[in-house]
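Example record

One chain of 326 residues, shown exactly as stored in the release files.
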Amino acid sequence: MKYIPVIIGLVFLTPGYACADLLQRTEVASFIDEMVAEYGYDAEELNHVLGRVELSEKVIAAITRPAEAFPWHRYRSIFIKPGRIRGGAEFWRRNQAQLERAAEKYGVPVEILVAVIGVETKYGRITGGFKVINSLSTLAFDYPKRSRFFTSELKHFLLLAREQSLDPHTLSGSYAGAMGIPQFMPSSYRAYAVDFDDDGLTDIWDNPADAIGSVGNYLKVHGWRKDAGITSTATVPDSDISALLTNGLEPKLTMADMVEAGIVAGGEVGAAENVKLLQLENRDGYEYWLALHNFYVITRYNHSALYAMAVYQLAEAIREQYQSTL
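Predicted structure tokens for this chain:
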């Protein structure tokens, strides 16, 4: 995405409606009223913006079958591939200075920064072909299950466009409205994106430096602990361990609790450290891991243990690949 300064009022007054009937819906009228009352938008301008929205059945179809619903062995095969590993090592070499500066500033290892971007967009190669405003409007107004969340994101998106003097109809992203190299939702952009190379623009679409810094800032703000562990393999006993497979992603039991139940960590984990036992489905059974605090932080980027494990394993493979070429 190139930064194209525009006069917002003129963009909003572009003639023609792609989905004029959207403006007849009571929830859309309420949304416009809220934007006018809370943020000082002009109602006529918003009518013109939303009148050009195209609601998308593809967006609804995509969000109802996310990859995170796959079993682990299938999910893993999407991301832990030789090409993506090589691509990560190449991204590291191309952006070494900025990655090392971000690792120093935010305390997040280089390989984790690279792996997040690798999982999200294959290092900026696949950033999504949906108009963000179409995606967010579709999910805000035609996906009741998560309407509140996406209505909030639509607000943030319009605020972002106004703040950056951008035409909201020119920005593209994922089916869920995630944008740029790190796939930030609009609220995340406004809260965590940084101008990491100090050029006066916060550009996560075309500027790897800003994308790298923004990922580092996001993880740090969400509690990343420098030099702390992420996860460890686990060996489980033959006895019933279902009580240890707690709901949610946050580690709440201690390693001492696990040891008492017969769980053995493959790496060094302190007895008092909070952990979460993960059971990941393979074709011929399960594998077990102990997720630590930093693993939980990765799930703040995408609320999925599969996602965080893919980031972790890709990061390990990228580091090995990178170091082998030094």
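Notes: The two ends are 33 Å apart (CA to CA).
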